[in-house]
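Practice problem: predict the structure.
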Amino acid sequence: MGNNCIFDAHQSIIFGNDFTIDDIIWMGDQPTIASLAEKVGVTETRPFAQLAEFIQQAQAQGRKVHFTPQYRGDNQILKANPDAIDAAHSGMYNKELHRLSCEVIAQGLKDLGLMKGDVKEAVELGAHVLFMVHGLGHQIGLDVHDMEGLGQIYVGYDDTVRPSNIFGWASLRMARELKPVIVY
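Answer:
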């Protein structure tokens, strides 16, 4: 699922595709792009395939189309990196580190006018996934992608923290406590 947003003087649109049946089988039931967009105050959604046509029409009407770095979600991710590094310590749960990073990203997007509402609530509800579709990191070494065979529950989780089925949190591969023996 790829998402792009268009914000112009008169409209806000999220271009994205809902999950397919294959995605739903893998991840369980997921909300639609429209329902997620509504949570961040955007009422219009369109399929991702319509993005190019929308841009071409805007150019044909003489409207300038700008792709400036400040509107790119990945720049907000870069802002979260130092905060996550500074906050990470043994004994902290990776789920909390992920939450911190998502809140930094969501606040940056709110500051840009790309998200609305309470940042902590938006992250808790998974609205940040419109801009950050993955979890924050995973272990390295044998634990990286061998976990599918072992079961993610045994590698990225433990008895104190379990996987979530909330959109935006379901992709977090590791939520367990950070320990010196875990290479992350």
